[in-house]
Amino acid sequence: MTLTDIIQILLLIPVAGGSVFCLLCVWAAGRFMSAPRSAATYLPPITVLKPVYGLDKGLEDNLLSLCRQDYPDYQIVIGVQRLDDPALPLLRRLEREFADRITLVVKPSEPVVNGKVQNLVNALAHARHDILIISDSDVRLAPDYLQTIVGPLADPDVGYVCTLYRSVAADRWFEKFELLSLNADFVPSIIFSAVTGAATFCLGASVAFRNSDLKAIGGMAALGDYLVEDHEMGRRLLALGKRMVLSPHIVEVLADYGSFSVWWHHQIYWDQNTWAANPVGFALTILTRAVPFALIFAALRGFDVAGLQVFGAALAIRLGTAAIIAGRYLHDREGLRALWLLPLRDVLALASWYIALTRRTFVWRGHRFGLTKSGRIVPRDGAELPLTAKAV
Fold it and tell me: Region 370-383: what's the mean pLDDT?
């Protein structure tokens, strides 16, 4: 057996592993999304924390979707970290329009470590209720979101509740890569983990929990030097003996990237988050990347019949299973139309996976930070990058 033969056999491991994983994700999605849902009966007063940094695409509609919830008693605390934030005129107008609902907190807080946590700490000081929800600025909500996400917290053993999210409004070709990364890769993996218990997680873009539990794990500020603050919060809540609930409710996250470069840096940042949350699990995802390794396999064989058959089978399974999940379970028509880009996105994802394993810096909102091997943030080195779109 030659070295080339050995390499080809090794390449078939992720091809087979990735294809099987795609099929398992369809099974998991069917099982998870078909589970019966109970009617909302637990409707305590709640505070929604909404960190804002800049004028994101669709921000007004995102905020209005929160202000117009079908829920009896809730407070919205919007946190802003800059006195010159371009979103402030909009936020002040909404504060006047929904004076009984919105509390706007403007406190200069230049990011030193995790900027989102710093923003949340400022907002949390004005929360009136024990039940808290974090909802990112790029999230758009259905009218029944609050009653759906808060329901499982009626059980005191539940520590936090997350919802699924689906990327939408991918207007540019490189934003469609983000849509596919989320809808065809991240969400199916999350559903698989929830059904099988393969990994624990906490989805910080849409999560409900109790302030009393947060205080029991050290408070929000204690999460400030973690890159993946939501995962660390979830880990600590689980360590209290609490459990996590993943709701089948789907919120929308708007894809908002000014250029391919901005998206690419965000993709690496996203992979760095995954690596920091679960280093071993992230490294092992190399075994599920069927399409790029099938392409390499076919290329090594000179694109002969056997090579093309392997590549064709891997591609058909990847596209077919992604189409089933997008169409049947996520109701993602945008994703179905963008599936032709999925093979290229998968090849790019292999490159970003490698970079995330080796790079020890990351960029957040135009600021560069260091990253330790344990996933902790090293205060920024003072270098700032141009702020384009929402960056990373």
Answer: 66
